[in-house]
Automatic annotation (TrEMBL):
<feature type="binding site">
    <location>
        <begin position="71"/>
        <end position="72"/>
    </location>
    <ligand>
        <name>substrate</name>
    </ligand>
</feature>
<feature type="binding site">
    <location>
        <begin position="39"/>
        <end position="40"/>
    </location>
    <ligand>
        <name>substrate</name>
    </ligand>
</feature>
<feature type="active site" description="Proton donor/acceptor">
    <location>
        <position position="194"/>
    </location>
</feature>
<feature type="active site" description="Proton donor/acceptor">
    <location>
        <position position="70"/>
    </location>
</feature>
<feature type="binding site">
    <location>
        <begin position="195"/>
        <end position="196"/>
    </location>
    <ligand>
        <name>substrate</name>
    </ligand>
</feature>
<dbReference type="InterPro" id="IPR001920">
    <property type="entry name" value="Asp/Glu_race"/>
</dbReference>
<protein>
    <recommendedName>
        <fullName>Glutamate racemase</fullName>
        <ecNumber>5.1.1.3</ecNumber>
    </recommendedName>
</protein>
<keyword id="KW-0133">Cell shape</keyword>
<comment type="function">
    <text>Provides the (R)-glutamate required for cell wall biosynthesis.</text>
</comment>
<dbReference type="InterPro" id="IPR015942">
    <property type="entry name" value="Asp/Glu/hydantoin_racemase"/>
</dbReference>
<keyword id="KW-0961">Cell wall biogenesis/degradation</keyword>
<comment type="similarity">
    <text>Belongs to the aspartate/glutamate racemases family.</text>
</comment>
<comment type="pathway">
    <text>Cell wall biogenesis; peptidoglycan biosynthesis.</text>
</comment>
<keyword id="KW-0573">Peptidoglycan synthesis</keyword>
<feature type="binding site">
    <location>
        <begin position="7"/>
        <end position="8"/>
    </location>
    <ligand>
        <name>substrate</name>
    </ligand>
</feature>
<dbReference type="InterPro" id="IPR004391">
    <property type="entry name" value="Glu_race"/>
</dbReference>
<dbReference type="InterPro" id="IPR018187">
    <property type="entry name" value="Asp/Glu_racemase_AS_1"/>
</dbReference>
Amino acid sequence: MAVGIFDSGLGGLTVLEAAQRRLPEVDFLYLGDSAHAPYGVRDADDVFNLTVASVQRLWDGGCDLVILACNTASAAALRRMQEGGLPKGKRVLGVFVPLIEALTERQWGDNSPPREVAVKHVALFATPATVASRAFQRELAFRAIGVDVEAQACGGVVDAIEDGDMILAEALVRSHVDALKRKMPNPQAAVLGCTHYPLMQQTFQDALGPDVTVFSQADLVAESLADYLERHPNMMGTGAAGYLTTGDARRVSDRATQFLRREIRFQAA
């Protein structure tokens, strides 16, 4: 019985790997929409339509619960999908809330009114589409008051990672951190608001300095998922585990194997 994990490309594999470590007894069906990646440069309606189609594919595959392991999809599509009404017995969860709960030191699922928190200055690194949506700031405002967020759109980083050009990715990360620090010289915390970015976490940390706490999503989402499944054991679904892609399965498999440093074999979605 599989839980669905969706991403625009390979970035969600960081969430998948963390979830597999945390929940070894759970099967996962991963879908990467590599044919249309990256999402971070698309407009909100385009991202919404692509996300809905991919989530429907996972539902059709027997996954009653789908995790949007893509910040751009979470920003542009999640709330719209939920407000539009989901099919009976189906759920879609995003990746922002677990990150914000950790940042604001809340227990999973704590929906109490917003309150003062220790962190006052937060740097957000994300795709241009996620930054433009202001979804992170909106979700944060539901939980905390008095927090200054400075967002930096990290153009080019996802493309470099997907292409396997880590030297370019590192150079771009350092450039984006420099740009952020010109606007917010002394952030207390930094949020890596893209599931590709954990692969560059050390580069972000080195560029930001040791006094900045870097929040990365993979382990936080995995822990939140474990808590959710404990409270909703009926959401396991009936699907089989596997890896699906809308792109070239052989090329995506090769990239994924490099990505996780273990053999991964994708099939056409």
